[in-house]
Design a protein that fits this description.
Elements (H helix, E strand, L loop, with lengths): L25 E6 L6 H7 L4 E5 L5 H7 L5 E4 L6 H5 L6 E4 L9 H6 L3 E4 L2 H19 L2 H9 L20 E5 L3 H12 L3 E5 L15 E3 L3 H7 L2 E4 L13 H6 L4 E5 L8 H10 L2 E6 L19 E3 L10 H17 L11
Parallel strand pairs: 1-2, 1-3, 3-4, 4-5, 6-7, 6-9, 7-8, 9-10, 10-11, 11-12
């Protein structure tokens, strides 16, 4: 819609009493994003906004770009107080996907900027990744694949591999948000018992599906009871290093650890020691700290470790879905409606 076509249309009311654009149209910046459909987003938001796409600007270029934008949509770009101070008209920062740990939510709230995300699209994919990693470990897929491809071994009947059956085993979920609940649904479907601990769980937000999940009073209780533990928490000051040497020692001997959230939730040196000692039967990690890893990190050489390069969010359907959800969220905020997924304020 061109500016003259927009004549006579009431200018949308912006939240937080920030001045709206003089033209009656908003301006949105898409940056630090590596999803494939920005042309679709431009088209989807064309009725209310001019969309500027600059995926890898320098810091100085970014300061100039945000000078007159009403919203920023991003994936990897850090948003701190300095950047926010260069964006006096900014009303919203929308994260593609789940995490918002690179965004200073406190600084944004102080400036009346809504921070939100688009978490629903990735929930099934990340949950499936967690279960895929667990299956790979318990069925010994990684070591067997390596042995065959390296023409080293073919042991059908001998003691080289010791797969275990997941049916009847207990899966402990640390975090019971969308992804944690979806992981519970899939694991329940293969006959696993589910226990969970979530320090942020609001008892008033439990659902009927949670009736099959037994809540633990604290993390040590969950670790002691679980045959496998899967992490589904955001990275915060309170969760960084959540799983260290003490927590690994509290896990059942021969159990498994899965992480599809953020690498820094785990003390990786302590994890390496637990794998090498045999206390843990294995670990499956879709995330590391840092990413990409130090290729000389001895953890990467552990035979009982399955690794993927932070691709749990990705599928044939999730790419378009997350962009459409982000578009819908930025539209709601700019038109003065309540956001669905606000992360601050």
């Amino acid at each position: 819609m061109s500016p003259d076509q927009n004549a006579g249309v009431e200018t949308p009311t912006a939240p937080h009493d920030k001045a709206g654009p003089a033209t009656g149209r908003f301006k949105i910046l898409i940056t630090g994003m590596f999803l494939p459909h920005t042309d679709v987003e431009i088209r989807e938001l064309a009725d209310i906004a001019d969309v500027v796409v600059n995926l890898e600007p320098s810091r100085a270029e970014l300061f100039e770009l945000v000078r007159d934008v009403d919203a920023i949509m991003l994936d990897t770009t850090p948003v701190d107080a300095e950047l926010l101070d260069h964006a006096p008209r900014l009303k919203a920062v929308i994260m593609y996907g789940v995490g918002t740990d690179q965004i200073d939510g406190v600084a944004a709230a102080e400036r009346g900027v809504i921070v939100s995300n688009s978490p629903r699209a990735f929930s099934t994919d990340v949950a499936e990744q967690a279960i895929a990693l667990l299956f790979s470990l318990t069925r010994q897929v990684g070591p067997a694949n390596d042995d065959i491809r390296n023409r080293q071994h073919w042991d059908t009947y001998g003691p080289t591999y010791s797969p275990i059956r997941l049916r009847g085993k207990t899966l402990g979920l640390v975090g019971l948000g969308r992804i944690g609940r979806e992981t519970a649904r899939i694991a329940s479907g293969i006959g696993m018992h589910i226990v969970a601990y979530d320090p942020y769980l609001d008892p008033d937000r439990t659902s009927p599906a949670d009736s099959d999940i037994r809540l633990c009073a604290d993390l040590p209780e969950l670790l002691a009871q679980s045959d496998a533990v899967s992490l589904h928490l955001p990275l915060t000051d309170g969760t960084r290093g959540l799983i260290g040497a003490d927590e690994l020692a509290q896990m059942k001997p021969g159990s498994y650890l899965i992480n599809v959230s953020r690498g820094a939730l785990i003390d990786q040196a302590a994890l390496h020691a637990a794998l090498e000692s045999g206390h843990l039967a294995g670990a499956g990690l879709d995330v590391l700290d840092p990413e990409p890893p130090d290729w000389d990190d001895p953890l990467l050489q552990s035979r009982n470790l399955v690794l993927t390069p932070h691709l749990g969010w990705k599928s044939d359907l999730s790419l378009m879905e997350v962009e459409m959800d982000a578009d819908a969220e930025v539209r709601r905020i700019l038109l003065g409606q309540a956001p669905k997924f606000q992360m601050n304020g």
